[in-house]
Write a structure and sequence with these properties.
Structural class: alpha+beta
Distance between the termini: 13 Å
Low-confidence stretches: 1-25
Number of helices: 2
Length: 196
């Protein structure tokens, strides 16, 4: 026979849940980019090389105004090398995005470089541009003294957006399990013998 919880038991359950609180790691977003093949290049780059990127954001892009994003992790490649957040990259790396009202990324500027050299002589990868001028570019040895490069102009690639969902943090999960167990014990203790 099913029984509804009494008003007192409901109040206790509500107090237990309120005292636990819900702390969920924020819902973020993963941005993935696939650029067009390079049309101008010098070895070791080739026409089959292109800029690609995977950028993890702690929070989803919501602004329809151009805004700087701070990735929790990233990996940007140009077919010859990959620069990732785990590498020694220059602190002036930037990740700017502009989404339209439908959520599509329409303008962007992403640039990362290794920190071992000055910016004009660093291995660097860039995609984007604002105001309708787009460029995907990879360079070895920097923009000014590049020993190898590849780029494509005015042929922007495509971004895809995928949401990541928060997971309860460990203390919250432990408290939530404890609260659920105590409610189960409370309900079990209130069982009455079956009537004949």
């Amino acid at each position: 026979m099913k029984r509804a919880l009494s008003g007192k038991a409901m109040a206790l359950a509500g107090a237990a849940c309120a005292s636990v609180g819900v702390s969920v790691a924020g819902a973020g977003e993963i941005l993935t980019y696939a650029g067009a093949g390079f049309t101008v290049f010098r070895e070791p780059f080739a026409a089959s090389d292109r800029v690609t990127a995977t950028i993890d954001l702690a929070n989803a892009l919501v602004s329809i105004l151009p805004a700087e994003a701070t990735p929790t992790a990233f990996e940007v490649g140009d077919g010859v090398e990959t620069i990732a957040s785990r590498d020694d990259y220059r602190p002036d790396a930037h990740f700017r995005f502009h989404a339209d009202p439908s959520g599509a990324i329409v303008d962007w500027d992403v640039e990362v470089a290794h920190s071992r050299n000055r910016l004009d002589s660093a291995d660097a990868i860039r995609t984007g541009g604002f105001a309708g001028t787009f460029e995907d570019r990879g360079t070895l040895g920097g923009y000014a003294y590049g020993v190898g490069y590849g780029y494509v102009l005015d042929a922007p690639g495509n971004w895809t957006r995928s949401a990541t969902f928060g997971v309860p943090e460990s203390p919250t999960l432990a408290f939530g399990l404890a609260a659920t167990a105590s409610l189960g014990l409370l309900a079990a203790g209130r069982r009455r013998p079956a009537q004949i």
